[in-house]
Write a structure and sequence with these properties.
Two copies of one chain form a homodimer. Chain A starts with a helix and ends in a 5-residue tail after the last helix. The longest helix of chain A has 28 residues. A two-stranded antiparallel sheet of chain A has the order 1-2. Chain A contains 17 helices and two strands. In chain A, α5 runs parallel beside α8. With about 325 residues, chain A is mainly α. The mean pLDDT of chain A is about 95. The interface between A and B is large, with 47 and 47 residues.
Chain lengths: ~325, ~325
C-alpha cells in the first residue's frame, strides 16, 4: 500500500510543479499557446481530468527513486516535472508523425488546432521541460544540475533516434526482432532510465548505485514497451484509450509483428501484400497468435520485468518509497497480461 | 576589412564545431537521421556548399561579441554552434509549418523525407543545440554555463511564442502594425539578442555591459526581420533563395502587409477578399508601395539599424572584433535596400 499512500502525497505536488512551469509560458499575447498545452496536459478543455492526464508514471518514478536512494522528494520536483514534460512533448509530435487522432480518448492537439500549431506547441513544451529541470537551481549544486541537464538532453536525442527507426521501419519489410531493441531503447527505455538515474543523482548516490538504478529503469522501459505492443494488438480499447487493434491497422512494426515476420509463415506472406483493412484485423491477430507471437511477447515482457525487479533489489531501495517502486513495477506489468 | 579577416579565421572553426556536435548523433543504426541533418546544414547531398549553409551570422555574432567584450573566441565555440543549431532546428520546423518547399534554393527536409521524419529531425537538432552549449563545460565555470543554458532555453521558448503568433495571425484579418512587434521579438530578435548576450557572458562582462550588448542584438534582430519582410515582397528571388513575392502569395502577415491593412485603403479591401494568385502579385505589391508600405518598411529597418549601431557604440567593443561588429551590422542592412 506504500504506492497508494505516496501517490496521494506526491501527485498533487507534481501537478502543482507542472502547472507552475507551463504557466510560466503564458502572457498577454500567448493565451492560445497555453491553451493547447493545458489541454494536452489534461487540465483544461473537453475531457479534462485524471484519465486525460495519464498516470504520471515518470515523475512518480523520479520522486520514488530519489527517496528510495536516500534523498528528499521535494528536491526532485523540478526533475519530475521535466521528465513528464519531455514525455508529453514527444507525445504531441508522435501523434502527428503517427497520424493519430486520439490520445487517451481525446482528440490530439494537431487534430484540434492543426499541424503547424501542434508542431510549435510541442517545441514550446520541449523548452519548458528543460527550463523545469533548470529550476533544480534552488536546492542543488551547479555541478549536479549540469550533469542532470546533460543526462536529460542526451535522452531527448535518444528519443529522436528511436523515433527515427520507428518511422523508417514503416517502409521496410525485411525486419526481424533484432531491429526492435535499438528502436525501443530510444523510444521508451531511454526516458525511464533517466527517471531513475535522475532520482539517484539528486539523492547524491555513488556511481555504482546510480548505475544499478539505471539498469532498473532501463529494463522497466523495455518491459513497458513490449507490454504496450502486446496491448496494441490484444488489448482492450476502453482501457488503452486507443482505437482497437490500431497497431495492425497502422502497420506498426511492433514486437509481435516483427516476431511474426521472422517466422516467415502465413502472417509474413499476408503482411507483405500491403495494409490490413479493419475487417481483416481479427483474422490476422489470430494468425499472429497461432504463430506464437502472443506468447513470445508475453514472455519477453515478463522476462524483462524480472530483470527490472532484480536490478531494483540490487539497488537496495529504502523504506516506503522502495516498497512503492516494487509495487509500481508489478502494477505496470499487470495492466492486461 | 576586419569582418572578412575574422570570418576567414572563425568560420572553419564554427563548421568544425558544428560537425562534431552533429556527428555525435550518428551511429550504426542512425545514419539516415544524420543524413537529414547534414543535408539541412548544407554539408552533404544535392546542392551542398557555401550557399546552402547560409552566412552563419548568428555564430559569428557570438564569437565577435565574445572577443569585442574581452574574451577568447575559442571559448565561445560551443555557444556559437548552439545558436546556429537552434536556428536550423527552427528552420526545419518552420518550413513544415509554413508549407515551404524550398530553403536556400534546395528542397526542404520535409519535402525530401516527409513530414514525420522532418519533425523528428528538427527535434534531434534541438537536442543537439543544447548539448552543444553544455560543451562549454570544458572551459567555463558551472555557474556561467547554467546561466547560458537558461538564457538559450528561454530564447527557444520565445521563438515558439513568436511562431505561435505568426501562425495564428494567418486566420485573423483585424491586424495592425502593433501586432507585428510581439511576433518579431520572439521569431527573430530573441535569438540575435541571445547571441550577443552569450558573447558578453562568456567574456565575463559586468551586468551593464551585458545589457548593452543585449540591446544591440535585440535591435539588430528587429531590423533584420523588417528588412527580410521588405525583401519578401520587393526582393530579388535569386538573392534570397525563395520564390518571388512568396510572402504575398502565402498571405504572410509581414510588416508591409500589416502597414497596408492599417491604412484601410484599396490594399486592405483586396486583402480581405482572399488569397492572392501569382498573376496578381505585381499589381498588389505596387498598390502596397503606393499606399506607403515600402517606404515605411524601409524607414523602420533603417531606424532600428541606427538603434543597433548606437547600442553597439555604447557597449564600447574592442579591437578588430568590435570593428567587425559594426561592419556586420551595416552589411546585413545593405542586402537589398
Amino acid at each position: 500500500m506504500s504506492l497508494q499512500k505516496l501517490t496521494k502525497l506526491y501527485l498533487p505536488a507534481i501537478e502543482n510543479e507542472l502547472r507552475q512551469v507551463v504557466d510560466s509560458a503564458s502572457g498577454t499575447h500567448f493565451a492560445g499557446l497555453s491553451e493547447m498545452m493545458t489541454y494536452h496536459m489534461g487540465w483544461e478543455g473537453q475531457g479534462a481530468g485524471a484519465k486525460a492526464r495519464g498516470k504520471r508514471v515518470r515523475p512518480m518514478l523520479v520522486l520514488l527513486t530519489t527517496v528510495a536512494a536516500g534523498g528528499k522528494w521535494q528536491q526532485a520536483l523540478p526533475a519530475a516535472a521535466a521528465v513528464e514534460l519531455v514525455h508529453n512533448f514527444s507525445l504531441i509530435h508522435d501523434d502527428i508523425e503517427d497520424n493519430s487522432s486520439l490520445r487517451r480518448g481525446r482528440p490530439t492537439v494537431w487534430k484540434k488546432w492543426g499541424l503547424a500549431q501542434a508542431i510549435n506547441t510541442g517545441d514550446a513544451m520541449f523548452s519548458l521541460a528543460h527550463l523545469a529541470l533548470l529550476r533544480l537551481d534552488e536546492t542543488l549544486s551547479p555541478r549536479i544540475i549540469l550533469e542532470a541537464a546533460v543526462i536529460l538532453q542526451q535522452t531527448c536525442l535518444h528519443l529522436t533516434q528511436g523515433q527515427y527507426l520507428d518511422i523508417s521501419y514503416e517502409n521496410r519489410s525485411n525486419l526481424s526482432v533484432a531491429d526492435y531493441w535499438p528502436m525501443v531503447r530510444g523510444k521508451t527505455a531511454a526516458l525511464l532510465t533517466t527517471c531513475t538515474e535522475l532520482g539517484a543523482l539528486i539523492a547524491e548516490s555513488n556511481y555504482e548505485t546510480r548505475a544499478t538504478y539505471r539498469r532498473f529503469g532501463f529494463n522497466l522501459g523495455l518491459a513497458f514497451q513490449a507490454l504496450d505492443d502486446y496491448l496494441g494488438i490484444w488489448g482492450n480499447a476502453a482501457q488503452t484509450g486507443k482505437s482497437v487493434a490500431s497497431d495492425l491497422l497502422e502497420g506498426k512494426k511492433s514486437l509481435p509483428v516483427l516476431y511474426g515476420l521472422e517466422q516467415d509463415g502465413d502472417f509474413a506472406t499476408r503482411w507483405a501484400k500491403g495494409p490490413i483493412p479493419p475487417g481483416e484485423v481479427s483474422k490476422i491477430s489470430a494468425q499472429l497468435e497461432a504463430e506464437g507471437a502472443r506468447t513470445y511477447t508475453h514472455n519477453e515482457a515478463r522476462r524483462m520485468t524480472q530483470q527490472a525487479l532484480q536490478a531494483l533489489e540490487d539497488a537496495g531501495p529504502r523504506g516506503d518509497a522502495g516498497e512503492a517502486l516494487f509495487e509500481l513495477t508489478n502494477k505496470l506489468m499487470q495492466r492486461e497480461i
